[in-house]
Write a structure and sequence with these properties.
- It contains 15 helices and 20 strands.
- The chain is about 35% helix and about 20% strand.
- It is globular.
- It has about 525 residues and is α/β, with parallel strands linked by helices.
- Helix 5 crosses helix 12 and helix 8 packs antiparallel against helix 9.
- The structure holds xanthosine-5'-monophosphate.
Amino acid sequence: MIVILDFGSQYTQLIARRVREAHVYCEIHPFNLDPAKLRALEPAGVILSGGPSSVYDKDAPHPHAEALTLDVPYLGICYGMGLLARSAGGVMARSSHREYGGAELVPVHDTGSGRGLFDGFAAGEGTRVWMSHGDRLEALPDGWTTLAHTENSPYAAIRSSDGRRVGLQFHPEVVHSERGREILENFLHRVCEVKSDWTMQGFVDSAVERIRAQVGDGQIICGLSGGVDSSVTAALIEKAVPGQLTCVFVDNGLLRKNESEEICDKLGNYFGADFVHVDAADRFLDALAGVTDPEQKRKIIGRTFIDVFDEASNSAHLERTPARFLAQGTLYPDVIESVSVKGPSATIKSHHNVGGLPERMNLELVEPLRELFKDEVRAAGEVLGLPHDLLWRHPFPGPGLAVRTLGSVNREDLDILREADAVFIEEIRRAGLYDEIWQAFAVLLPVRTVGVQGDFRTYDRVVALRAITSEDGMTADWYRFPHDVLQRSASRIANEVEGVNRVVYDISSKPPATVEWE
Ligand code: XMP
């Protein structure tokens, strides 16, 4: 594996993604990882990320000196290059301003071993790279050479005399660095000499072994939401220890049109007797009656879920020995966030709706997807034979339609919203745009506006349509629909959904807006 030491760069996750995309396993660890632990990981190479600091800042992150002395190749990116160069005797200088944006990188003729970072590049032939740095290298360490320069950086890429330490002033991991992927792959394959042998089938096989070792003959329960993460988690466990898993699907009455039936159909089929469906719609809707504050709604839904799930798991219905384990679909970005240099980022909304479940039920966690990114989870799902539609569906929030019918939640409004949402998604699918859009949905607004339908004046509800493009939901842009798709959606909703006479399209990006309206 490759170890990435994180110095707080906003791009650290991207480095990991690029390495994984090259089918090489990697893990991100904090910059101050204990050198003994680093050694125990037996990395084939170490990447030092960039970071927002100057090495001269008072509280700049410094790794343990010993962490830079393993007998493996090192790649330093930006701030990481400064650390590598300094540790070998190079001289850094604090720049008066940050260099930020695109630059033309020109590789120079490398007379070295030939097994290097710029194999496949022609000397003198420029390529665009993305710069974002403050400190600058003033003098190379003894014996080091320059591999490439830009107009402002004479040392844009450097290497030690044996070629096992390399540094890049720019960010090869971002898409704006045209041939960044090739440079990273050269580091992996030519400098570290690792093979691209990390595959999803390999991941599934080793995850199965790990689950067996962790749970022995213990029983496991898993909450299935119909989403990708919980479904793949459950499918992996089912494969590892068939007969020891119980999947509980709680229908909270806040799902989209026909969603509950589809989940029961698809997942019920897949998990057979190990699938339990709990219809708790009345309980959730009663608990939500009259509540208008979005955070309050989330809390009520989270609490009710825990109660219902706990009861369902303990009920005689399960007729099994009580569970010792709770399976959760925690993904790598959550794990990274919890070990991040910057600490968990400020939560704008309380998204972790079911926190507290393992403590309340006194269960040990099984989290087989902890090392995976979302697209890798989908690939694992394909290997496990889960239905394609399920793996590629848009994200859907835990509190469901409760945060899309603004203000207090009631059955009539939920029905209106379900119909409008179904029309919108149908039109998106019909236009072949579903996979291009990251998330799309309808929102029912708590206002009435005047309209005219036939010879009558109406005073009816407004539906807002939202569709976004995004990488991870953290930032988003509104989706540029062909006008006819919007037109068809709007006119069908106003004509077919009783109680709606007006449709608007949301063209806010995130930030400053969020994806959901509540
Ligand atoms: P926001 O609205 O915060 O949404 O920009 C970002 C992503 O998170 C989803 N979302 C939630 N997911 N529980 C969830 O499980 C929640 O309370 C919640 N609120 C928002 C949202 O759908 C989008 O994908």
